[in-house]
Amino acid sequence: MSFIEARHLVKTYGVGEQLVHALNDVTLEIQRGEFVAIVGASGSGKSTFMNMIGCLDQPTTGSCLIAGEDIATLDSNALANLRNRRIGFVFQQFNLLARTSALENVALPLLYAREGDLGGLTKQDRLEHAKKRLEQVGLGERLSNTPAQLSGGQQQRVAIARALVNDPDLILADEPTGALDSKTSAEVMDLLTYLNEQGITVVVVTHEQDVAAYANRTITFKDGRVLADQKNAPRNLESTKSLDKLPKTLQGDNSL
Ligand SMILES: Nc1ncnc2c1ncn2[C@@H]1O[C@H](COP(=O)(O)OP(=O)(O)OP(=O)(O)O)[C@@H](O)[C@H]1O
Ligand SMILES: [Mg+2]
After folding, report:
1. pTM of the predicted model, to two decimals?
2. Does the C-beta of 46 come closer than 6 Å to ligand 1?
3. Ligand showing the shortest atom-to-Cα distance for residue 38
């Protein structure tokens, strides 16, 4: 069984008299542990597809299975539950709470965690768990900084720590480097590469070729359809693999 299975996925929006086919018969599978880039022109359906596999939205027709569960058949409670248990989101604009410390930003999703070992933690345990995740993204020294007191790259790392706090199987990142310069983008992509190497499935939407090159596979959307689906060439270790640039706490920590 594939981790993600989209079958004849269609998402249609009605705008006035017009129908927009945001997704128009998309069939594809993503296996556990893959690192996938989604590319394509503006309006080609990339975010719509991400919202679908992120259980934020449901198809008009067709099916989308996440770990065997068809999201088209789930009610909003069950969708939220699937999302909270399995999926971490990273956005272009970080979406951190402005007047809130890095630590509390990362701990926040644990308030909404349901059954299982991460539901019902005490505040102290939630903060402890969040601290561990911030250490893992190299921000152990910045726990009490608010977003305004952090660089763009550091803010995105806080957002990645927040995405990790529920121990997800899947990270969905829609333009995670869209607001960052190229050096900071590389740091963020190195971090996502590292997390993928720890076994987390990663799907990234990007407009940038350099960013897509971090993935093992590139899926190109056009007009709501899959135009191409290709394996990427292995990356040049010398120039692109910079785990040694990541904080030491990331290396050799297998607790993810
Ligand atoms: N809520 C909505 N209502 C109406 N139309 C929508 C809605 N969401 C998306 N669309 C339309 O669906 C199509 C696909 O949009 P989508 O956001 O998936 O594109 P995208 O590939 O992510 O583009 P971008 O690169 O600009 O982010 C577009 O034509 C868009 O206008
Ligand atoms: Mg988009």
Report:
1. 0.91
2. yes
3. 1
